[in-house]
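User: Fold both of these, please.

Assistant: Here is the first one.
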Amino acid sequence: MIAIDHTGRVVLVTGAGAGIGREIARWFARAGAAVAVADVRADKADETVAAIAAEGGRAVAIVKNLRDDPEIQAMVDETVDALGSLDVAVNNVGNFPPGRVPTPTVDMDGAFWRDLLDQNLVMAALSAAAEARAGADVILFVSSGETTRPSPGMAAYAAAKAGINHLVTTLAVELAPTRVLAIAPGTTLTETVAAALPDDYVAKIIESTPLKRGVEFDELARLAVFLGSDLARCITGQLILADAGAFLSRNRPPSAG
Protein backbone atom coordinates (compact mmCIF):
# COMPACT_ATOMS: atom_id res chain seq x y z
CA MET A 1 0.00 0.00 0.00
CA ILE A 2 1.32 3.45 -0.95
CA ALA A 3 0.67 6.04 1.74
CA ILE A 4 -0.03 9.62 0.75
CA ASP A 5 2.49 11.88 2.44
CA HIS A 6 1.96 15.63 2.78
CA THR A 7 4.76 16.11 5.31
CA GLY A 8 6.31 19.55 4.98
CA ARG A 9 3.37 20.96 3.06
CA VAL A 10 0.96 23.70 4.14
CA VAL A 11 -2.73 23.30 3.41
CA LEU A 12 -5.44 25.95 3.76
CA VAL A 13 -9.04 24.75 4.12
CA THR A 14 -11.89 27.26 4.12
CA GLY A 15 -15.08 26.50 5.99
CA ALA A 16 -13.05 24.06 8.09
CA GLY A 17 -14.93 24.61 11.32
CA ALA A 18 -17.37 21.76 10.71
CA GLY A 19 -18.64 19.15 8.29
CA ILE A 20 -16.77 18.47 5.07
CA GLY A 21 -14.20 21.19 5.70
CA ARG A 22 -13.32 19.90 9.16
CA GLU A 23 -12.84 16.38 7.88
CA ILE A 24 -10.69 17.57 4.97
CA ALA A 25 -8.50 19.51 7.41
CA ARG A 26 -8.16 16.49 9.71
CA TRP A 27 -7.22 14.10 6.91
CA PHE A 28 -4.59 16.45 5.47
CA ALA A 29 -3.12 16.74 8.96
CA ARG A 30 -3.13 12.94 9.31
CA ALA A 31 -1.11 12.86 6.08
CA GLY A 32 1.49 15.14 7.66
CA ALA A 33 0.48 18.59 6.46
CA ALA A 34 0.37 21.73 8.58
CA VAL A 35 -3.17 23.01 8.21
CA ALA A 36 -4.68 26.49 8.30
CA VAL A 37 -8.25 26.06 9.53
CA ALA A 38 -10.25 28.98 8.14
CA ASP A 39 -13.76 29.70 9.37
CA VAL A 40 -15.90 32.68 10.27
CA ARG A 41 -16.73 31.05 13.62
CA ALA A 42 -13.80 31.22 16.04
CA ASP A 43 -15.19 28.51 18.33
CA LYS A 44 -15.63 26.07 15.45
CA ALA A 45 -12.18 26.78 14.03
CA ASP A 46 -10.70 26.18 17.47
CA GLU A 47 -12.55 22.86 17.76
CA THR A 48 -11.03 21.66 14.50
CA VAL A 49 -7.55 22.79 15.56
CA ALA A 50 -8.00 20.95 18.87
CA ALA A 51 -9.13 17.78 17.09
CA ILE A 52 -6.04 17.89 14.88
CA ALA A 53 -3.74 18.55 17.83
CA ALA A 54 -5.27 15.63 19.74
CA GLU A 55 -4.13 13.35 16.89
CA GLY A 56 -0.60 14.79 16.93
CA GLY A 57 -1.08 17.14 13.99
CA ARG A 58 -0.27 20.81 13.53
CA ALA A 59 -2.93 23.40 12.75
CA VAL A 60 -3.74 27.06 13.27
CA ALA A 61 -7.10 28.81 13.31
CA ILE A 62 -7.65 31.60 10.80
CA VAL A 63 -10.87 33.43 11.67
CA LYS A 64 -12.13 35.48 8.74
CA ASN A 65 -15.41 36.51 7.14
CA LEU A 66 -14.89 35.79 3.45
CA ARG A 67 -17.87 37.90 2.48
CA ASP A 68 -15.61 40.85 3.23
CA ASP A 69 -13.24 40.93 0.24
CA PRO A 70 -10.13 42.23 2.09
CA GLU A 71 -10.47 39.39 4.60
CA ILE A 72 -9.85 36.88 1.82
CA GLN A 73 -6.36 38.20 1.17
CA ALA A 74 -5.82 38.55 4.91
CA MET A 75 -6.69 34.86 5.35
CA VAL A 76 -4.01 33.82 2.87
CA ASP A 77 -1.45 36.27 4.29
CA GLU A 78 -2.02 34.97 7.84
CA THR A 79 -1.66 31.39 6.64
CA VAL A 80 1.74 32.14 5.08
CA ASP A 81 2.83 34.18 8.11
CA ALA A 82 1.86 31.43 10.55
CA LEU A 83 2.97 28.35 8.60
CA GLY A 84 5.61 29.63 6.21
CA SER A 85 4.06 28.97 2.80
CA LEU A 86 0.94 27.77 1.00
CA ASP A 87 1.04 24.57 -1.04
CA VAL A 88 -2.55 23.31 -1.26
CA ALA A 89 -5.76 25.33 -0.91
CA VAL A 90 -9.21 23.79 -0.51
CA ASN A 91 -12.05 26.23 -1.14
CA ASN A 92 -14.85 24.49 0.66
CA VAL A 93 -16.83 27.36 2.17
CA GLY A 94 -20.27 27.97 0.69
CA ASN A 95 -23.88 28.34 1.65
CA PHE A 96 -26.98 26.20 1.28
CA PRO A 97 -29.72 28.53 2.56
CA PRO A 98 -31.73 27.06 5.47
CA GLY A 99 -35.44 27.52 5.09
CA ARG A 100 -35.23 28.48 1.40
CA VAL A 101 -34.80 25.07 -0.22
CA PRO A 102 -36.61 24.02 -2.23
CA THR A 103 -37.68 27.36 -3.74
CA PRO A 104 -39.16 27.51 -7.25
CA THR A 105 -37.01 29.59 -9.57
CA VAL A 106 -39.91 31.96 -10.30
CA ASP A 107 -40.00 32.83 -6.59
CA MET A 108 -36.30 33.70 -6.30
CA ASP A 109 -35.76 37.45 -6.20
CA GLY A 110 -32.60 39.33 -7.12
CA ALA A 111 -31.34 39.49 -3.55
CA PHE A 112 -31.63 35.71 -3.23
CA TRP A 113 -29.70 35.14 -6.47
CA ARG A 114 -26.97 37.63 -5.60
CA ASP A 115 -26.56 36.18 -2.11
CA LEU A 116 -26.14 32.60 -3.38
CA LEU A 117 -23.77 33.65 -6.17
CA ASP A 118 -21.66 35.69 -3.75
CA GLN A 119 -21.34 32.95 -1.17
CA ASN A 120 -20.81 30.03 -3.53
CA LEU A 121 -18.99 31.47 -6.55
CA VAL A 122 -17.58 34.95 -5.97
CA MET A 123 -15.93 34.10 -2.64
CA ALA A 124 -14.39 30.97 -4.14
CA ALA A 125 -13.04 32.85 -7.17
CA LEU A 126 -11.49 35.60 -5.05
CA SER A 127 -10.02 33.02 -2.67
CA ALA A 128 -8.42 31.14 -5.54
CA ALA A 129 -6.87 34.35 -6.88
CA ALA A 130 -5.32 35.13 -3.49
CA GLU A 131 -4.10 31.55 -3.11
CA ALA A 132 -2.53 31.59 -6.56
CA ARG A 133 -0.69 34.83 -5.76
CA ALA A 134 0.70 33.13 -2.64
CA GLY A 135 2.16 30.32 -4.75
CA ALA A 136 -0.23 27.43 -4.10
CA ASP A 137 0.55 24.55 -6.44
CA VAL A 138 -2.83 22.85 -6.02
CA ILE A 139 -6.19 24.63 -5.70
CA LEU A 140 -9.25 22.51 -4.98
CA PHE A 141 -12.89 23.58 -4.93
CA VAL A 142 -15.89 21.85 -3.42
CA SER A 143 -18.61 22.08 -6.06
CA SER A 144 -21.83 20.04 -6.04
CA GLY A 145 -23.37 17.04 -7.74
CA GLU A 146 -26.40 19.27 -8.30
CA THR A 147 -24.47 20.83 -11.19
CA THR A 148 -24.65 17.61 -13.20
CA ARG A 149 -28.44 17.31 -13.40
CA PRO A 150 -31.61 19.37 -13.20
CA SER A 151 -32.06 20.73 -9.69
CA PRO A 152 -35.69 21.75 -9.16
CA GLY A 153 -35.98 24.14 -6.24
CA MET A 154 -32.22 24.75 -6.07
CA ALA A 155 -31.52 26.71 -9.26
CA ALA A 156 -29.51 29.54 -7.68
CA TYR A 157 -27.32 27.24 -5.60
CA ALA A 158 -26.72 24.82 -8.47
CA ALA A 159 -25.99 27.63 -10.94
CA ALA A 160 -23.46 29.17 -8.57
CA LYS A 161 -21.70 25.83 -8.11
CA ALA A 162 -21.81 25.24 -11.89
CA GLY A 163 -19.90 28.50 -12.21
CA ILE A 164 -17.16 26.92 -10.12
CA ASN A 165 -16.96 24.01 -12.57
CA HIS A 166 -16.26 26.38 -15.44
CA LEU A 167 -13.89 28.46 -13.32
CA VAL A 168 -11.84 25.32 -12.72
CA THR A 169 -11.27 24.74 -16.44
CA THR A 170 -10.28 28.36 -16.99
CA LEU A 171 -7.96 28.60 -14.00
CA ALA A 172 -6.30 25.30 -14.90
CA VAL A 173 -5.11 27.03 -18.07
CA GLU A 174 -4.45 30.49 -16.64
CA LEU A 175 -2.57 29.27 -13.56
CA ALA A 176 -0.68 26.29 -15.03
CA PRO A 177 1.40 24.54 -13.81
CA THR A 178 -0.72 25.01 -10.69
CA ARG A 179 -3.26 22.21 -10.70
CA VAL A 180 -6.90 23.27 -10.30
CA LEU A 181 -9.68 20.78 -9.59
CA ALA A 182 -13.16 20.49 -8.15
CA ILE A 183 -14.87 17.78 -6.14
CA ALA A 184 -18.61 17.39 -6.66
CA PRO A 185 -20.23 15.68 -3.68
CA GLY A 186 -23.57 14.01 -3.82
CA THR A 187 -26.02 14.42 -0.96
CA THR A 188 -23.88 14.98 2.14
CA LEU A 189 -25.61 15.84 5.40
CA THR A 190 -23.65 18.85 6.56
CA GLU A 191 -25.26 21.11 9.17
CA THR A 192 -26.58 23.49 6.52
CA VAL A 193 -27.91 20.77 4.22
CA ALA A 194 -29.61 18.94 7.08
CA ALA A 195 -31.23 22.21 8.16
CA ALA A 196 -32.28 23.17 4.64
CA LEU A 197 -33.76 19.96 3.21
CA PRO A 198 -36.79 18.12 4.57
CA ASP A 199 -36.03 14.55 5.65
CA ASP A 200 -38.42 13.03 3.12
CA TYR A 201 -36.78 15.01 0.31
CA VAL A 202 -33.33 13.74 1.33
CA ALA A 203 -34.66 10.17 1.49
CA LYS A 204 -36.02 10.45 -2.06
CA ILE A 205 -32.73 11.80 -3.37
CA ILE A 206 -30.78 8.96 -1.75
CA GLU A 207 -33.22 6.36 -3.05
CA SER A 208 -32.75 7.73 -6.58
CA THR A 209 -29.00 6.96 -6.60
CA PRO A 210 -27.66 3.65 -7.94
CA LEU A 211 -25.81 3.04 -4.66
CA LYS A 212 -28.86 3.98 -2.54
CA ARG A 213 -26.77 6.07 -0.16
CA GLY A 214 -25.47 9.51 0.61
CA VAL A 215 -21.83 10.55 0.85
CA GLU A 216 -19.78 10.60 4.06
CA PHE A 217 -17.49 13.45 5.09
CA ASP A 218 -14.41 11.23 5.27
CA GLU A 219 -14.93 9.94 1.72
CA LEU A 220 -14.70 13.48 0.38
CA ALA A 221 -11.76 14.26 2.66
CA ARG A 222 -9.71 11.29 1.48
CA LEU A 223 -10.44 12.22 -2.13
CA ALA A 224 -9.18 15.77 -1.47
CA VAL A 225 -5.99 14.42 0.14
CA PHE A 226 -5.37 12.26 -2.94
CA LEU A 227 -6.06 15.04 -5.45
CA GLY A 228 -3.76 17.38 -3.53
CA SER A 229 -0.91 14.87 -3.66
CA ASP A 230 1.72 14.00 -6.26
CA LEU A 231 -0.16 10.76 -6.93
CA ALA A 232 -2.62 12.95 -8.86
CA ARG A 233 0.00 15.17 -10.49
CA CYS A 234 -1.32 14.52 -14.03
CA ILE A 235 -4.88 15.61 -13.17
CA THR A 236 -6.00 19.21 -13.63
CA GLY A 237 -9.04 21.10 -14.88
CA GLN A 238 -11.37 18.31 -13.86
CA LEU A 239 -14.61 17.94 -11.92
CA ILE A 240 -14.40 14.74 -9.87
CA LEU A 241 -17.81 13.33 -9.00
CA ALA A 242 -18.26 11.67 -5.62
CA ASP A 243 -22.02 11.31 -5.62
CA ALA A 244 -22.95 7.62 -5.18
CA GLY A 245 -23.77 7.57 -8.89
CA ALA A 246 -26.51 10.20 -8.66
CA PHE A 247 -25.46 11.72 -11.99
CA LEU A 248 -26.51 8.47 -13.68
CA SER A 249 -30.08 8.84 -12.53
CA ARG A 250 -32.61 11.30 -13.87
CA ASN A 251 -35.50 10.12 -11.69
CA ARG A 252 -35.01 12.97 -9.25
CA PRO A 253 -37.69 13.42 -6.60
CA PRO A 254 -40.28 16.12 -7.20
CA SER A 255 -39.81 19.42 -5.41
CA ALA A 256 -40.98 19.14 -1.83
CA GLY A 257 -43.54 21.52 -0.44
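And the second sequence with its predicted structure:
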Amino acid sequence: MIDWKKYLIVFFITLGLFLTALYLSNYFGNKKIDQLKAIQDKISIDILSSETQFSLLSELSCKNVSDTILSSELYDLGGKLEWGQKNLGITEEVSYLRKYYSLLQIKDYLLMKKISARCGVKSAFILYFYTTAENCSECEKESLVLTALRDKYPELRVYSFDYSTDLSAVKAMLHIYKIKDTALPALIIDDDLLTGFYSVEELETRIQESFKLQEKESKN
Protein backbone atom coordinates (compact mmCIF):
# COMPACT_ATOMS: atom_id res chain seq x y z
CA MET A 1 0.00 0.00 0.00
CA ILE A 2 1.38 3.45 -1.03
CA ASP A 3 2.11 5.75 1.88
CA TRP A 4 0.74 8.99 0.37
CA LYS A 5 1.36 10.90 3.56
CA LYS A 6 5.09 10.17 3.33
CA TYR A 7 5.24 11.27 -0.32
CA LEU A 8 3.31 14.45 0.44
CA ILE A 9 5.72 15.36 3.22
CA VAL A 10 8.70 14.79 0.92
CA PHE A 11 6.97 16.82 -1.82
CA PHE A 12 6.30 19.79 0.45
CA ILE A 13 9.84 19.70 1.86
CA THR A 14 11.27 19.67 -1.69
CA LEU A 15 8.91 22.45 -2.75
CA GLY A 16 9.91 24.47 0.31
CA LEU A 17 13.61 24.06 -0.46
CA PHE A 18 13.04 25.04 -4.10
CA LEU A 19 11.06 28.16 -3.19
CA THR A 20 13.66 29.13 -0.57
CA ALA A 21 16.48 28.75 -3.11
CA LEU A 22 14.49 30.77 -5.67
CA TYR A 23 13.83 33.51 -3.13
CA LEU A 24 17.49 33.70 -2.09
CA SER A 25 18.61 33.78 -5.73
CA ASN A 26 16.26 36.66 -6.50
CA TYR A 27 17.22 38.42 -3.27
CA PHE A 28 20.95 38.35 -3.94
CA GLY A 29 20.36 39.17 -7.61
CA ASN A 30 18.41 42.26 -6.59
CA LYS A 31 21.13 43.17 -4.08
CA LYS A 32 23.70 43.08 -6.89
CA ILE A 33 21.51 45.30 -9.04
CA ASP A 34 21.08 47.74 -6.15
CA GLN A 35 24.86 47.78 -5.61
CA LEU A 36 25.43 48.50 -9.29
CA LYS A 37 22.87 51.31 -9.28
CA ALA A 38 24.51 52.86 -6.21
CA ILE A 39 27.93 52.72 -7.90
CA GLN A 40 26.45 54.11 -11.11
CA ASP A 41 24.88 57.05 -9.29
CA LYS A 42 28.14 57.83 -7.47
CA ILE A 43 30.19 57.57 -10.66
CA SER A 44 27.71 59.77 -12.54
CA ILE A 45 28.27 62.50 -9.95
CA ASP A 46 32.04 62.00 -10.14
CA ILE A 47 31.91 62.21 -13.93
CA LEU A 48 29.91 65.45 -13.83
CA SER A 49 32.34 66.89 -11.29
CA SER A 50 35.35 65.85 -13.36
CA GLU A 51 33.94 67.30 -16.56
CA THR A 52 33.23 70.57 -14.77
CA GLN A 53 36.82 70.65 -13.57
CA PHE A 54 38.03 70.02 -17.12
CA SER A 55 36.22 73.18 -18.20
CA LEU A 56 37.53 75.19 -15.23
CA LEU A 57 41.14 74.09 -15.66
CA SER A 58 41.16 75.02 -19.32
CA GLU A 59 40.33 78.60 -18.30
CA LEU A 60 42.59 78.94 -15.26
CA SER A 61 45.95 80.66 -15.19
CA CYS A 62 49.01 78.57 -14.41
CA LYS A 63 49.30 79.82 -10.83
CA ASN A 64 45.88 78.32 -10.02
CA VAL A 65 46.52 74.90 -11.56
CA SER A 66 47.01 71.92 -9.28
CA ASP A 67 48.81 69.02 -10.92
CA THR A 68 46.89 66.35 -8.99
CA ILE A 69 43.25 67.44 -9.18
CA LEU A 70 41.96 65.32 -12.02
CA SER A 71 44.24 62.31 -12.18
CA SER A 72 43.74 61.39 -8.53
CA GLU A 73 39.96 61.44 -9.02
CA LEU A 74 40.24 59.31 -12.14
CA TYR A 75 42.38 56.82 -10.20
CA ASP A 76 39.63 56.53 -7.56
CA LEU A 77 37.00 56.26 -10.27
CA GLY A 78 38.94 53.44 -11.91
CA GLY A 79 39.05 51.59 -8.59
CA LYS A 80 35.26 51.80 -8.26
CA LEU A 81 34.77 50.47 -11.77
CA GLU A 82 37.23 47.65 -11.10
CA TRP A 83 35.25 46.70 -7.99
CA GLY A 84 32.01 46.75 -9.95
CA GLN A 85 33.49 44.59 -12.71
CA LYS A 86 34.85 41.99 -10.29
CA ASN A 87 31.82 41.83 -8.01
CA LEU A 88 28.96 42.45 -10.42
CA GLY A 89 30.36 41.04 -13.65
CA ILE A 90 30.52 42.61 -17.10
CA THR A 91 26.98 43.94 -17.19
CA GLU A 92 25.75 46.42 -19.77
CA GLU A 93 25.92 49.21 -17.19
CA VAL A 94 29.49 48.40 -16.13
CA SER A 95 30.57 48.15 -19.79
CA TYR A 96 29.02 51.55 -20.53
CA LEU A 97 30.73 53.18 -17.55
CA ARG A 98 34.05 51.58 -18.54
CA LYS A 99 33.78 53.29 -21.95
CA TYR A 100 32.92 56.61 -20.32
CA TYR A 101 35.89 56.23 -17.98
CA SER A 102 38.19 55.57 -20.97
CA LEU A 103 37.00 58.81 -22.57
CA LEU A 104 37.66 60.73 -19.35
CA GLN A 105 41.17 59.31 -19.22
CA ILE A 106 41.85 60.49 -22.77
CA LYS A 107 40.50 63.95 -21.94
CA ASP A 108 42.65 64.10 -18.82
CA TYR A 109 45.72 62.99 -20.78
CA LEU A 110 45.27 65.65 -23.48
CA LEU A 111 44.50 68.40 -20.96
CA MET A 112 47.40 67.60 -18.63
CA LYS A 113 49.83 67.40 -21.57
CA LYS A 114 48.81 70.95 -22.49
CA ILE A 115 49.00 72.19 -18.89
CA SER A 116 52.37 70.52 -18.44
CA ALA A 117 53.76 72.25 -21.53
CA ARG A 118 52.13 75.64 -20.86
CA CYS A 119 52.71 75.87 -17.12
CA GLY A 120 55.88 73.82 -16.67
CA VAL A 121 54.16 71.27 -14.42
CA LYS A 122 56.48 68.33 -13.84
CA SER A 123 54.79 65.25 -15.25
CA ALA A 124 55.46 61.97 -16.99
CA PHE A 125 52.83 60.12 -18.98
CA ILE A 126 52.30 56.43 -19.72
CA LEU A 127 49.55 55.01 -21.90
CA TYR A 128 49.05 51.36 -20.95
CA PHE A 129 47.17 48.88 -23.14
CA TYR A 130 46.20 45.48 -21.80
CA THR A 131 43.71 42.65 -22.24
CA THR A 132 42.34 39.74 -20.20
CA ALA A 133 44.65 37.43 -18.25
CA GLU A 134 43.61 34.54 -20.50
CA ASN A 135 45.03 36.34 -23.52
CA CYS A 136 47.89 38.20 -21.83
CA SER A 137 49.85 36.37 -19.16
CA GLU A 138 52.09 39.39 -18.46
CA CYS A 139 49.40 42.09 -18.27
CA GLU A 140 48.56 41.61 -14.60
CA LYS A 141 52.25 41.71 -13.64
CA GLU A 142 52.71 44.90 -15.66
CA SER A 143 49.72 46.46 -13.92
CA LEU A 144 51.35 45.81 -10.53
CA VAL A 145 54.60 47.38 -11.77
CA LEU A 146 52.76 50.51 -12.92
CA THR A 147 50.87 50.77 -9.63
CA ALA A 148 54.17 50.61 -7.71
CA LEU A 149 55.69 53.31 -9.93
CA ARG A 150 52.66 55.53 -9.61
CA ASP A 151 52.89 55.30 -5.82
CA LYS A 152 56.59 56.18 -5.96
CA TYR A 153 56.25 59.04 -8.45
CA PRO A 154 53.20 61.29 -7.78
CA GLU A 155 54.05 63.21 -10.96
CA LEU A 156 53.57 60.05 -13.05
CA ARG A 157 50.25 59.69 -14.81
CA VAL A 158 49.26 56.22 -15.99
CA TYR A 159 46.26 55.82 -18.29
CA SER A 160 45.04 52.22 -18.73
CA PHE A 161 42.97 50.99 -21.66
CA ASP A 162 41.48 47.58 -22.36
CA TYR A 163 42.48 46.62 -25.91
CA SER A 164 39.01 45.18 -26.56
CA THR A 165 37.12 48.36 -25.60
CA ASP A 166 34.62 49.03 -28.37
CA LEU A 167 35.22 52.76 -28.53
CA SER A 168 36.35 54.76 -31.57
CA ALA A 169 38.72 56.94 -29.51
CA VAL A 170 40.51 53.89 -28.10
CA LYS A 171 40.65 52.27 -31.54
CA ALA A 172 42.16 55.50 -32.90
CA MET A 173 44.98 55.30 -30.35
CA LEU A 174 45.61 51.67 -31.25
CA HIS A 175 45.89 52.70 -34.88
CA ILE A 176 48.06 55.77 -34.21
CA TYR A 177 50.59 53.83 -32.11
CA LYS A 178 50.31 50.63 -34.21
CA ILE A 179 49.44 48.43 -31.23
CA LYS A 180 48.54 44.80 -31.95
CA ASP A 181 46.68 42.36 -29.72
CA THR A 182 49.55 39.89 -30.16
CA ALA A 183 52.02 42.31 -28.55
CA LEU A 184 50.47 43.07 -25.17
CA PRO A 185 51.06 44.54 -22.68
CA ALA A 186 51.97 47.70 -24.57
CA LEU A 187 53.20 51.00 -23.17
CA ILE A 188 53.55 54.42 -24.77
CA ILE A 189 56.16 56.70 -23.18
CA ASP A 190 57.11 59.91 -25.00
CA ASP A 191 55.49 58.51 -28.15
CA ASP A 192 57.73 55.41 -28.02
CA LEU A 193 56.01 52.02 -28.18
CA LEU A 194 57.22 49.40 -25.69
CA THR A 195 55.75 45.91 -25.97
CA GLY A 196 56.01 42.97 -23.61
CA PHE A 197 56.75 43.02 -19.89
CA TYR A 198 58.98 45.76 -18.42
CA SER A 199 60.27 45.65 -14.84
CA VAL A 200 60.14 48.47 -12.29
CA GLU A 201 63.83 49.23 -12.86
CA GLU A 202 63.46 49.37 -16.66
CA LEU A 203 60.46 51.67 -16.58
CA GLU A 204 61.93 53.82 -13.83
CA THR A 205 64.84 54.67 -16.12
CA ARG A 206 62.43 55.68 -18.89
CA ILE A 207 60.36 57.78 -16.50
CA GLN A 208 63.41 59.69 -15.24
CA GLU A 209 64.46 60.29 -18.86
CA SER A 210 60.99 61.62 -19.56
CA PHE A 211 61.28 64.09 -16.68
CA LYS A 212 64.66 65.30 -18.00
CA LEU A 213 63.28 65.67 -21.53
CA GLN A 214 60.38 67.72 -20.24
CA GLU A 215 62.69 70.00 -18.24
CA LYS A 216 64.82 70.56 -21.34
CA GLU A 217 61.77 71.44 -23.45
CA SER A 218 60.42 73.86 -20.83
CA LYS A 219 63.75 75.72 -20.76
CA ASN A 220 63.72 76.06 -24.52
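Residues 4-59 form the longest helix (56 residues).
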